[in-house]
């Protein structure tokens, strides 16, 4: 039996939540750039032009490092409005900017001091590391950052297991500690201004506090409160399984249809591994359900979970929700097992709704019976589109044929990356405004 949750009304505010959050982040960064520049100018310009520019690059690098931490702190307010996928992507590009900024800092400072002493740059760097407090720590931090930046490059990331990449990435926190200790020891603003010292201590305290709150304290508190456990494991077909979970006070868990959790099932062989799975049913305050396809050891092991298994869940995460609706009508486009958040959204949506479900063959249509019954109950249209992945069946012409008023609807797309990209291109060709196209990249590593 399907329990229908009361659907929230589409937002009526003239400014979209994503725009509010994104503008807030830009304004926060710009304001801090202005503050850093002010304190830098106030401290005076000691040294030649290379040293002056190098110090400014170092301060901007410290600011970017703190901003990077904020982007991956997984703060609920930001995540619901922007989404973990976009925040992680911004974190990635900020990281590359950080590497170049700090590399510029090191090169300019080294060449600047070498110009004054007459030493060659390598000898000058060695001399600074040996004689100036904090410089050796900064050199080690920069070396670690270069390694992390290298393994985060797309060509390297594709060749590494997620666990290897993640473990290497944890050294970023060591980089933060080493870099900040260097800044405290040698930064001119720390020496010349009490206000600047207070600013930097506050900046780093807020950035690290946000990470501690979002990634440690909040998950620990929620799991202690809700005490999640597996209640049933139901195979949907030979490759897909649904896991039903219950707990205490789930009506107070701020989860919405379309969101996902990082699920950690506390068995002796899998307790250490967390995997992202979307909710495949709208939260009803009593139970949660995820549906996953066996694509690796972690997802394949779900079939063997036993009722009563304890669960540690981080989340909910994601902006793939009805919070971002702009129109009364909706088009849902799902591909393969990407139907799971789409099925949850269909349960929550009100207004004229069309669902297009793209699969290779009808036997691959996971949860199809549920979708059919739910569509009938809500008066929604359901189109099952079958056929090989190439040539693409969801062309702009096909989308326009199935949904003639597509430009007047919000469109939610979830499926394999190739299908999602093709559908988004098709929607833009049809003139659907970007603000009405909602999608999410389900990738923790950006």
TrEMBL record:
It is found in: Membrane. It is a multi-pass membrane protein. Residues 223-323 form the FAD-binding FR-type domain. Keywords: 2Fe-2S, FAD, Flavoprotein, Iron, Iron-sulfur, Membrane, Metal-binding, Oxidoreductase, Transmembrane, Transmembrane helix. It comes from the Bacteria. Its cofactor is FAD. Coiled coil: none annotated. The chain crosses the membrane at residues 25-45, 51-72, 93-114, 134-156, 168-186, 198-218. This is Ferredoxin reductase family protein. It comes from Streptomyces broussonetiae.
